[in-house]
Amino acid sequence: MVMARHLYASTPVVDGLPLLAEPEFWAAHLIDLYDDALVESFGVDPADVEGMLERLCDKAAWPMFRIPLAGGHSVLVHYNSGEEYTSTDYFIAHPDWRTNDLVLASTDEDRIGPGLCWAELAALLDTPGDGEGVTDPHARLLLLLPVLGDTNIPAEAVTLVKDALIAHGAPDDCEPLARLLLQGHPMWGVAPWSYDEDERAWICAGEQSPRETPLGDHLPDTQRAALEDCLTPVGSCSGQAALASGTGAATGNARNSS
Question: Taking the model in full, what pTM does it have?
Fold first, then answer.
């Protein structure tokens, strides 16, 4: 399991926020989720994407992106360029935690994921956060798409991803790409999720998912409650459950019609 904050304590971390303004970043960040032949569907030059991949794999500068959440929590997206290859780690952190940060997904050799269901990801797009970081809902959605792995995604998800792609330079006819990006990371694919009312937590049935048990179940009760509140803002739980229950066409239907 990735030891998030401790792993990066002495590494060449750089703020990745400026990269989000460069259209080729999204094609590079999401490259594992689509066929290389579709790179131009992002509205960018493949050569520019290759250049961005080199920057993301730079051993001297590891980009990190912070998505601020409520209560001081953050989702951190961290590129990790080791000696052999570059992996990407996604984890939740809080400055007052004395335990290891909570890993949602990682593309290292352990292949950890998926780490979010659609209900949670949808709730995080407009969640007010504390401090600086990625606040634009479109950027938040695209940045966290690799963590998603859900067998039951509503039809509106395709529209949201399409709108996010267009907002970052993709042409208007990018719906096929949007559908493809919702089909899960090839390292862990998609899995069924269910909401445990007693635990107040989403549970994933994926064998490689860190969410097979309630997120943060080792934390003190007050920290655990705060964590759940930042992932499921007040009033969103029932709405997210409706999304996860398959209101509209799910990803499976999206696949069949693509």
Answer: 0.87
Radius of gyration of the chain (CA): 17
Question: What is the maximum alpha-carbon separation in the chain?
Answer: 51
Nearest to residue 29, comparing CAs of 142, 193, 133, 109? 142
Q: Output the six-digit token pair for 137.
A: 């809902």
Query: Residue 240 in contact with residue 120, Cβ under 8 Å?
Result: yes
Arithmetic mean of pLDDT, 64-83? 90
Domain boundaries, the chain: 4-257
φ, ψ of residue 105 to 5 degrees: the values are: -165, 155
Q: How many angstroms separate the CA atoms of 23 and 52, rounded? A: 10
**CA pair distance 228, 237, nearest whole angstrom:** 10
- For the stretch 99-132, pLDDT in tens is 567 899 999 888 999 999 999 999 999 877 777 8
Mean pLDDT over each residue of the chain, to the nearest integer? 85
Any idea of the CA torsion for 209, 79, 71, 129, to the nearest 10 degrees? Answer: -120
Strands (E), 107-254: 193-196, 201-204
Closest alpha carbon to 126 in 111, 116, 138: 138
What is the C-alpha to C-alpha distance for residues 211 and 132, in angstroms, rounded to an integer?
A: 27
